[in-house]
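ARCHIVE CARD
SHELF: 3
SLOT: left
DATA:
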Amino acid sequence: MTSRNPDPAARLDRAKRRARIFRSPPRRPLAVRRAVQVLTLLVTVAIGLQFAHWVGGVMDGARVGVRPPGVEGFLPISALISLRHWVADGTFSMIHPAGLVIFGLACLTALFLKKAFCSWLCPVGTVAEALARLSHLAFRRRIKLPTWLDRSLRGLKYLLAFYFVYAVFVQMSPHEIAAFLNSPYNKVADIKMLLFFTQMSALTAKVLGALVILSFVVPYFWCRFLCPYGALLGLLSSLSPLKIERRLPDCTACGHCAAVCPAFLDVDRKTRVADPECTGCLECVAQCPAPEALAVRAGRGWRGRLRPVVFAAAVLLIFFGGIGLAKLSGRWRTEIGEAEFMRRAQELDSPKYHHARGRVPEYGPGD
């Protein structure tokens, strides 16, 4: 819902104020969210370094360190296929179980806490936010594409999300799903993913470099226009009972909430923010000068409000608590042994470790 002032003079004053704060310097981010972001980023970097060290040993035929299951969080397509297999067949694939757990917990977080995974936990989102702040400092304003172009490009990530969901849940048969999950390719998908970055082609380097530059010039370019993961979480977050609510009697119409919204939402014009682009970052709540004007609430008429620190605790509880339960239930570590990993690492150039749009070569029991 939106609330617009019918007074033309008031509308003009609001427009001038919004234009002024759009050029204002970036404000200090919500401290508790920044702490969670830094913690998650450090954990992700540690997992990446540990995995790279382990892969180096495996490629050389030596046992070096331990493979960290958390690296499977970077295999979202494999996780989506595992989810389809689990839903349709009732079988929880143990090829990359941590990937399915992480994907499921991200979806669960979206259902209860908006797109908090994107703004609190996702390392790509954290890097994108850092680039956005550098962009703001460099250009002294928040850069946003024209509305018509912004809306058109935003549709790309929803089209990509639809394509992947349709391909996995509609086009692939149960036999193809099982064949992919147990294929030689899927069993070493994490190793191939690492080599994609450590041995990247010139074209890959140019594409990644272009995305970094675009994310600096147009903040959140990847997250806003291209990330299918975020698009799926955004659609799920529409079902979340928690929403940012603005109470008109307490609102001072300062516009600070809209000025800091990374999704460029008109928070200062809404009474309830239900847009799937809302990431639940709570920056608008943190910047609001009127304590009761803007808050996270669980529905109209709900008198209580969820404070940012409680929201942060809920994010950590669902995500890391869920990982803890997965470990206790034995659904975290892959069933693939280290000897098998070492054998497969020596034959990665074989055609059986390739795929074409999810179609994998035929393989036998010995593969």
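SLOT: right
DATA:
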Amino acid sequence: MKRIFALALALALSAAPAALAAKYEWRLAEEEITDSVCDVYAKEFARLLKEKSNGDINLEVYPLGTLGTPEEIFELCQNGAIEFVLDGAGQVGSFVPENQIFSLQFLFSDNQEVNEKILADSKALNEMLSGVYASRGIKMLAYWSEGAMDWTASRPLLQPEDFKGLKMRTMPSPMIVESYKVYGANPTPVPFMEVYSGLQLNMIEGQENAPYITQEMKFMEVQKYYIQSSHKIYIMQTMANKDFFDGLPPHIQKIVLDCVAELRAFGYKAQEELNAKRLDMILKAMKPDQKLLKLSPEARAQFREISKNTDKTYLEVSGNPELAQKMLDVIRQEIAAAEAAAK
């Protein structure tokens, strides 16, 4: 907590001279490094805000590490020290445990266009879950995907029993930990910036991420297998401090919301292109003893069935079992309906 106060004070002091530059001087912290999908999105957000406000809005972007950990930057936004934050759902599960619905594996569709529709229109997410964020002082502006997540490991992972005893890196989320326990793995929470060394030293034996992050962080340098599992999608969240947002003039609120709406297609295209490009880079850099694997339809069905054993855990860790069950029922209905409509 002392670190949060220190960061908030530093931000307040650094913001004072900049206030002359534009009518609105805002700050956004992101959980990823420069030139990541998250960073490209953040920079486009800043550009759109300036453009649509005729220069009245300036958004300063702070990449990973500049203002603290993903958990710390969420707190900075929650406390009003910064106006906006881009954080993955799993990173803030301890603050909003209801959001750990995103940690359920094989919940979303294998059709990523269906998932985009769900993230944009789902009542379970944009009404029920966003209402929980509001009660925590956060205005949820958008849930969006950074792409389907895959596994890398020191051993082949083609069926649930292959996970037995595997030291799998997870985020600090009880739900993510449980999602690997049901396969028989040994889930091990490790900070993101320590994953490479953890894999290298065999402190952990596997990890999950979208292709572009795996390539960006060079994880395949210390892994033998790349498994195209698409077991879940990495959900990024565009958030603002609620009191700050509610206090903005209506026309400025509209500019923010219009920018976020425009960013949805931009973000989807950016992650799609970058993930395809980085997966190709991963494959081209593979050594003879490294292998690309893909789950069979039969294995996916197996994983999906076993993963449902974590529903109970989600209800428990949510802190609000009644709401969590309703959200889960509604989103499964929404996904099924969207998949049927897409056929």
